[in-house]
Amino acid sequence: MYTISLCMIVKNEEKVLSNCLNSVKNLCDELIIVDTGSTDQTKQIAKKYTDKIFDFEWIDDFSAARNYAFSLATMDYIFWLDADDVLLEEDQQRLAETIKNLDFSVDAVSMPYNIAFDSFGNSTFSFRRNRLIKRINHYKWIGFVHEYLEVFGNIIQSDVAVTHRKLERPAEQSDRNLQIYKKRLQHGEEFTPRDLFYYANELKDHKQYLNAIDYYRTFLNTKKGWKEDEVRACINISECYRSLDNKEQEMEALALSFKYDIPRPEAACRLGDLYLLECLFNKAIIWYKLALEITFDDVEGFWQEAYATWYPNLQLCVCYWELGNIKKSIEHNTAAKHYIPNEPAIKQNELFFQSLDH
Fold this sequence. Notes:
With 358 residues, the protein is an alpha/beta fold. It is 47% helix and 16% strand. Strands 1, 2, 3, 4, 5, 6, 7, 10 and 11 form a 9-stranded mixed sheet that branches. Strands 8-9 form a two-stranded antiparallel ribbon. The longest helix is centred in the middle third of the chain and has 17 residues, at 227-243.
């Protein structure tokens, strides 16, 4: 069985680090923690798990810090996490099995990254990241913010999911990435297409919607972005226009996403919502049905489970009721219940439908 180095970069993670390390400490042969300037108890907590704790002077460059952490690894494979990530018990078991059966011909193992959840704990937004990589290949991180690991070779997909448990960050941390981008721009740096996309995301998250739209369009005009980012840019533009209460432009941005790949369930549902708001129920139904036809296998990147399962069914329940088709309305409420059986709205609908029989 091959050996595993866990490599992490941390700063002021005293609230989450123990949870992270407890979930993987028995699966890794060495734990490497690179601290980029903690002022809380992060390093003291890390010392309870490993003596391989190193300092790295922060230079506004996440890739530089991650590459330094990777350079310290000595085992066969490197596994990486952020401090607010954990492996749930079932995923710990899956990772142990993956490591046990790993063949050295494998250069990297990709894993789902679950980053958003509904009130019942079900993942609502996930995408894959290369998590376990062969050390001797010397793969490098690229990008000063929203960095990615440039991996090639024999990459296999695993069902080991990494769960992100994000905590509310202090204002100075939530603003950090935006300020890094702005500094780079002030110094005259030319952004890559990927930088343009993620800078636009930061602007959107900070409610600078018009500026965000400009950068999303600049990104799309390069015609050099990753397909998934191009699709996401269109959906994010639509979100900006929705915040600006411009429904016409919101609809156009959603339709634009179809230019880059097959329709995403989210885009289809958002179009359905716009028609539903206008009481154009037959048109809304077309888009909700389309959302249900698209499967995870059709999509390479980001996946939001709700928009392909319970949400369009619940909206179809509304549409068919408004059109007087009670049978179809009940069918779609029942279909939504299959995914979220404890949802109050579904239970309320059931009680209402039962009352019609009396």
